[in-house]
Amino acid sequence: MSLEKRELYRLPWSKNDNPIAWLEITDICNLHCEGCYRQRLTGHKPLDEIKEEILFFKRWRNPDNVSIAGGEPLVHPQIVDIVAFIAENGLKPIVLTNAAMLTPELLRELKAAGLAGFTVHIDSHQGRPGWEGKSEAEHNELREHYARMIAAERNLITIFNSTVYPSTFHEIPDVVRWGQGHLDIVHGLVFITYRILETEASVGVDERGAEVDARRLSYSTGSFDEDFVTAPEVYQIIKEHCPAYQPSGYLGGTIRHDSYKWLAGAMVGTKHGIYGSVGPLAMQVAQAGHHLFCGTYLAYLAQMKAAPLMFLLAPWDPAVRHALKNWLGDVVRHPSHLLGRVQIQTIGIIQAPDLQPGGQADMCDSCPDMTVWNGTLINSCRMDEYRLFGGMLSVTRKEAPEPQPEPQPEPQPDLQDERQPELVGPRDGDRE
Fold this sequence. Notes:
11-stranded mixed β-sheet; 20% strand; 3-stranded antiparallel β-sheet; 27% helix; 2 domains; single chain; TIM Barrel
């Protein structure tokens, strides 16, 4: 089944009215993920500066939640204080972490400070000690370990994201099947397509038009000989192995009219199975309703509360009606399943910036992951370009060297022996 924008809900987010604030508190990390957009240049941000950025977000971004990112945010010595300040200002703190430093003790401290949940990044290209060379399916063991640790504290949102590389694209269904088998402790999955900047045949140009050394960026490489994965391709492989999955909302690109930069969807099910997906109308009601009653758009659902209420939209949303029909059919066949708690599990797909022929990158329209740079909002995935070069780069193809004329062969010396008689016909004087 192909994607059609006219059949999806265009998420109403904007630069200044967006549910997510992306707060970078450190650029120090304890892992080395392939293609990471951030490198260590400055270290930990002071707490006072972090508080100023939180208040800036609250005033100019109107977020529902604050994504606490890095680097690895759990290495910041004041992470608990940061979570508490966000919660005190009426925002939901969400920690984006690789979870390598997460312990039950730290988890309890964070929850007591007001933490709303985690987005845990786990994939097979992180260089985790003891996990090198293991597949995404094998990494499900690690995902489950942290999911159960977080679930033990109750009422925390738990989402797992991973980068999709050309070499791991075929493993996406393994992660989806694992997530569907743990609806009670896994509230969402996010797949982010891998992108890097190739420098062998191109050159970086800053905003003034001057050439710069793009090799200084951590997400650059000399050359890359595989095709990058796209968001529609991720959708297709999930759909192939999970027919019930269907996105309901999207964000387009800033350059291409046909790009899908964010695909947002949610599946409805119980521990006994998946019954269907939330449709575009239900997504619209959730966004508009939350903005009407709470003043902000919504990025993280309160799954426990929202799932049963979603069935109330069945008369108007065909996708929800289909899910309700499947659930009722299951209950008729297995009456004991009526006691199973209905859950919602979100599945998101994000396509990283795509380089266009003109040298500019197709970014996420109404980017949810904007952060603060010198008192303004910028795309967080391009932050290192600001830090190193003062702004976003464009990329141009390196000029091929002018063709040089082919060297002409030097004239060969006459090898004929001058003492040898000429090979000519008889002269007139020789004739009789």
